Structure formats: C-alpha cells, structure tokens
C-alpha cells in the first residue's frame, strides 16, 4: 500500500512537498487577493527556507518526495498520457487559455524534459511567450505582455490541500477557489497513473464532485476517528459524500467522523489553521474558536448510504478525549493568554504544527511565544525559518502531505 496514515502523530516516514518555483515570481500586486496571497514572497529566500524544512525532515528520518518529481515520473516514457495531461491542463486553464489553446499546446509540448514541463504548467504562461500575435488585437493593446494566458498556481507549496491521505485511501479534493482547482490535476495523475500508486489507492472523494473540500480540514485523529472542519473551504455536503464513501469501503477502519463547524473567515480558513494534534493527548488551538465551536458526530446509518448525525454538547477537550479514549486532553493556546500575541501568531500559523512523532513538531520560528509554551508543555519543537513562506498563509502542516506514518 503506498498510503498509510492512521493518525496525526505517528512517526512520519514519507511525505510529499513542493519546492516553491517560478509560480511565486508570477504574483503581481493586483492579483494577490484572487490568488490567495497577502504579499509576494522573495523566491530565493522562500526556497532556502523550504530547503531547511526538507532538511529537518530528512534529519529526522523522513523520506521527502517532491510533487514535481512524482508528476514527472508519472509522465515519463508515456507520450499519450503526456498529451492528455497537457490538453486537460489547458482545457481547465480558463477562457483565455481556450482562445490560445493550439499555441499553448505547442509551447508546452515543445518542452521535452518532463520535470520542466510540469514546472512550466505550475509557473503559468505569459502573453509574450507565445509567438502568436494578431488574435486579440484590442486586448493586446489594453493589457500587453504582463497578461497571463495560463495563470500561475502559487499555492502549490501547500501540498496538504489538493488531496489528503485518509487511512490507506485519499480524498482527491474539489477546491473552493478557482485559482486552486488545477492543483488537483497533478494529484489525479499521480494517484491514478504513477506506478507506485495506480490501482491500489481507494478514493473517498473525487475532484469532479460538486462540493468543495480541502485537505487542511481533514485530520486523522485515530484509525477509527476522522475529524473534518466545516469551514470557508469545506462544505457540509462534501463531508456527507466523504462519509458515505468511507463507510461504504469495507477496508476502511473509520467508524466515526467528527465535523467541527469553525467560523467561515480567511484567518481561520481550514481546521488545521486553528487546531493541530501534537502528542497523544495534546493539541494546539486558537482560543478564538473555543467559545462558539459546534461539533457533530457522524456514524453509519441503519441503511446503506444513510448517515446518523448527532450534535455533541460537551467541550472540545472532552469530545477529543472521549473519541481518543483518554481521560484528559491538554489544549495549548496559540499565543498564550496575550490576545495580541495570539492573534498575531495565529495569523502566522502558530497553531499549524507538523507533528512528526508523538510530542515532536516542526513549527515556524517566528511564533516564539507559542513555541515557548509548547516547550514548557514538554513538546520537542524543531523550528524552521519563516519570513517568506508565511506570506502565503500556511505553516508546516499545510506545506506537507504525509504519505506514510507508523501506527501509534
Ligand atoms: N491547510 C492550510 N491551512 N493551507 C493553507 C493554504 C493557504 C493558501 N494561501 C490558501 O489560501 O489556500
């Protein structure tokens, strides 16, 4: 089995990352909001930070695989698949891409090396790269060279979101924003065509389903319990479909899905932006969600495809404790008691820790107050530099997709 993730904390053995590329250099001020960035990271420094991240993981015995390499490996030596990929990519690239689809195809197909081809699809294609001319004489004058024929995909370094490992299967997601939808094309080719994955991975969600769901909302609490955020990105309808598919798969061990209804705002974005598990009995949490959080328990219904849903009325630590079989669960507040620190560190993903073994996490160095509190609670904290990567509003958990964790 190529995927095996039955907890949030089991020793991490294999993880998928994406090293930020040219797509970040294609961010421009007028497009930041649409492309879900708050600033333009300095690519060189962002890559250095990312390499430190990968280095920390390797030092801890984790095998790091890169999205771009898996994708290139999928296409290698398969001209028909390669052609299908390019055509699909252009097809889903929006209206302007349709207008220039033949030129785009020639440009992309002309890139021989698979890895370079994949990186080019990520980076986007500008008007002045096409030798065309004359097709949009008015638009060309109004919006010259800087215009993108194929948009860049700058959020790719958040590999957590387009697909999510659940047990031995995956949820291949339908993304909330148009700007992130093509990210899941890579996942679909890798999972369906790469020799290491093809044929052995059950899908619990598919990218052509109509309701949005993103990996940052999916937490593997234990082999039997999955937590999913209802958020800006993930709809309750998507969670119902996910639940039906999981419960319909006899090989899946999950018996309960907890749906956490978190406020639908950008600062909270995904469940993992406000809560992550860091040890058997410890979680980080943004205090902002504690008051108003509603939690629903979803189990198999009495008939095929039906679901039983109950609203739980206990507090968050009690709910987590009950479902993990623990007497007590410690919730560590991001930023501690200081409200300013807690809002600031939450904004910079202080709660978004990547747990690589029980009680051992990778975090951003800039969230020094939260990191100090984690240490006081006996957690081993491995810090990575974070000036540039944090500008994309995601932390170490968002930047990693575990493929294999040891069982706990
Ligand atoms: N799992 C996460 N929290 N991912 C963070 C993704 C950040 C990205 N800029 C977005 O808005 O989609």
From TrEMBL:
Keywords: Arginine metabolism, Cytoplasm, Hydrolase. The active site is at residue 398. It is found in: Cytoplasm. InterPro entries: Arg_deiminase (IPR003876). Transmembrane segments: none annotated. Pathway: Amino-acid degradation; L-arginine degradation via ADI pathway; carbamoyl phosphate from L-arginine: step 1/2. It comes from the Bacteria. GO terms for cellular component: cytoplasm. GO terms for biological process: L-arginine deiminase pathway. It is an enzyme of class 3 (hydrolase). One of its GO terms (molecular function) is arginine deiminase activity. Its EC number is 3.5.3.6. Signal peptide: none annotated. It catalyses: L-arginine + H2O = L-citrulline + NH4(+). Belongs to the arginine deiminase family. This is Arginine deiminase.
């Amino acid at each position: 089995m190529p995927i095996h993730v039955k907890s949030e904390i089991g020793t991490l053995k294999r993880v998928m990352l994406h090293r930020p590329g040219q797509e970040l250099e294609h961010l421009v001020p007028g497009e930041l909001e649409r492309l879900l960035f708050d600033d333009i990271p300095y690519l060189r420094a962002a890559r250095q930070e990312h390499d430190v991240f990968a280095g920390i993981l390797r030092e801890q015995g984790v095998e790091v695989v890169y999205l771009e390499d898996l994708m290139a490996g999928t296409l290698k030596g398969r001209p028909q698949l390669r052609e299908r990929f390019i055509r699909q990519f252009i097809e889903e690239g929006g209206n302007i891409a349709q207008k220039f689809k033949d030129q785009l195809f020639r440009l992309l197909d002309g890139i021989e090396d698979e890895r370079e081809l994949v990186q080019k699809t990520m980076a986007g294609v500008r008007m002045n790269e096409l030798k065309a001319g004359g097709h949009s004489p008015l638009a060309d004058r109004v919006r010259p060279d800087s215009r993108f024929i194929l948009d860049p995909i700058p959020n790719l370094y958040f590999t957590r979101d387009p697909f999510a490992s659940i047990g031995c299967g995956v949820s291949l997601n339908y993304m909330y924003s148009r700007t992130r939808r093509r990210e899941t094309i890579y996942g679909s080719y890798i999972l369906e065509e790469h020799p290491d994955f093809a044929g052995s991975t059950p899908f619990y969600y598919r990218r052509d389903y109509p309701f949005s769901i993103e990996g940052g909302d999916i937490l593997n609490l234990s082999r039997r319990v999955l937590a999913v955020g209802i958020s800006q990105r993930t709809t309750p309808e998507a969670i119902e479909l996910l639940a039906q598919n999981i419960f319909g798969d006899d090989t899946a061990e999950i018996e309960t899905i907890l749906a956490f209804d978190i406020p639908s705002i950008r600062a909270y974005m995904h469940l993992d932006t406000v809560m992550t598990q860091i040890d058997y009995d410890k979680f980080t949490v943004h205090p902002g969600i504690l008051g108003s959080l509603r939690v629903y328990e979803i189990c198999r219904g009495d008939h095929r495809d039906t679901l039983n849903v109950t609203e739980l009325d206990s507090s968050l630590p009690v709910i987590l404790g009950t479902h993990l079989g623990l007497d007590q669960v410690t919730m560590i507040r991001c930023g501690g008691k200081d409200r300013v620190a807690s809002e600031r560190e939450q904004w910079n993903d202080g709660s978004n820790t990547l747990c690589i073994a029980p009680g051992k996490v990778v975090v951003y160095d800039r969230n020094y107050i939260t990191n100090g509190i984690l240490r006081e609670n006996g957690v081993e904290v491995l810090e990575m530099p974070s000036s540039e990567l944090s500008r994309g509003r995601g932390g170490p958990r968002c930047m990693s997709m575990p493929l294999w964790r040891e069982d706990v």
